[in-house]
Amino acid sequence: MRRRRRRRRRRRRRRRRRRRRRRRRRREEEEEEEEEEEEEEEEEEEEEQEEEEEEEDDDDDDDDDDDNSDDDDGDDDDDDDDDDDDDDDDDDDDDDDDDDDDDKCLLFHFFTFILSLDLSMKRFNCKWYID
């Protein structure tokens, strides 16, 4: 009888120890995963901030160019009635600039998509390309 009780107690203790160890391991793994996720999020946020700053810098540079182009004509502003045909040509140039901006925007979104895809695949230890 005593032997059985001892055996039962030992088994229970072993089971408890095993459960505790498993719980500890799970907690540690979860904490590590959370830390990794936080680091990735921080990196993504930093990258986004850098990209936004670059865009703002690019926008500031473009604004300065537009302001100076109107004043460098050398023509008098009183002769605007005679230059109606020239104004139409200038509008076409503005459309080209808008197209370039659209292209840049599309490229930006494309590369951000690829970057996010790459990060998510790395996160799950997957490859999205063939070796």
Quick structural gist:
The protein has 131 residues and is mainly α.
Task: For the structure shown, list the relevant keywords.
about 130 residues; single chain; mainly alpha
Topology overview:
Blueprint: H1 2-71, H2 84-123
Tell me about this structure.
With 131 residues, this protein is mostly helical. The protein has a domain at 96-131. Helices cover 84% and strands 0% of the residues. The protein has 2 helices and no strands. It has helices at 2-71, 84-123. The longest helix is centred in the first third of the chain and has 70 residues, at 2-71. The two termini are 65 Å apart. The relative contact order is 0.05. The mean pLDDT is 76. Residues 29-101 have a biased composition (Acidic residues). Residues 1-26 have a biased composition (Basic residues). Residues 1-101 are annotated as: Disordered.
